[in-house]
Write a structure and sequence with these properties.
The protein is of the alpha/beta class. The protein contains 6 helices and 11 strands. The protein is 35% helix and 23% strand. It is flat, with a radius of gyration of 22 Å.
Length: 248
């Protein structure tokens, strides 16, 4: 992979050109506060990147407005105060959050009694409290979500090689060619029906890896509630509370 800095051209946004051996076509990526990224396949004349950016300028401007608005919203969400309760609908859990100051060096989150999540330690340090909540959330999701996925897979008769939980920035899940399903810890914030639909989506990839019409036919076979079209994928920030957002 090669990286080239695009020149400053009057009327055009700053851009960089990335030559990728894996790219099959030219692709533009717009992120808040960053130059436009122009990914091109090997052999593509990098001098033509300026023309690509120029031709796509209306799309770039619309996308820049949208991503900057989203980034601003995420920054506001991340600054939300510490929660009084934690709701994890997908696994049927609702906990009151209690903050207990101790002389411990750090902060930890622990369920000491039913229905109560205790944050203890230096609870005056808000960011440390949020980090403790995120550690607890990830551990809880790793424990509970595979159980849900394994129950759904047994019900439908499509068994993955493994089910693991990670915490990607935006993706709800993925499935590898070898049959390994990965789920996002953020799934715990979804209503049960939506979490189940995403699990079924990934299980359908055991039969069809791409997103072709054949794949969506497999989804409908496994999940008749999916209807005739693609199910609308929920956005992370619409369900994930501010303390759990990590990519603002």
């Amino acid at each position: 992979m090669g990286l080239f800095t695009g020149g400053r051209t009057p009327g055009l946004p700053d851009f960089i050109v990335v030559v990728s051996a894996r790219a099959r076509r030219v692709r533009l990526t717009v992120k808040a506060g960053e130059p436009v990224r122009v990914t091109v396949p090997r052999g593509f004349p990098t001098r033509k990147a300026e023309g690509v950016v120029s031709d796509a300028l209306p799309w770039i401007e619309r996308t820049r407005t949208r991503v900057e608005k989203r980034a601003s919203m995420l920054r506001e969400r991340v600054s939300e105060p510490l929660p009084d309760d934690v709701a994890l609908p997908a696994i049927g859990l609702l906990l009151e959050v209690v903050y207990r100051r101790t002389e411990a060096a750090g902060v930890r989150a622990i369920v000491r009694s039913p229905g109560v999540l205790t944050i203890e330690g230096r609870v005056s340090e808000e960011e440390a409290c949020k980090a403790a909540l995120r550690r607890w959330l990830l551990a809880t999701a790793k424990r509970e979500l595979p159980k849900r996925a394994e129950a759904v897979s047994a019900e439908l008769g499509c068994i993955p090689r493994s089910v693991t939980v990670t915490w990607p920035r935006r993706r709800w899940g993925s499935c590898s060619a070898s049959g390994d399903v990965r789920l996002s810890a953020d799934l715990v914030f979804l209503p049960p029906a939506e979490a189940r639909a995403i699990i079924i989506h990934e299980l359908a990839h055991l039969a069809v890896l791409d997103h072709s019409p054949r794949f969506y036919a497999e989804v409908r076979r496994l999940d008749p509630a999916a209807g005739q079209g693609r199910r609308r994928v929920p956005r992370h920030e619409n369900h994930t509370p501010g303390w759990a957002l990590r990519d603002a």
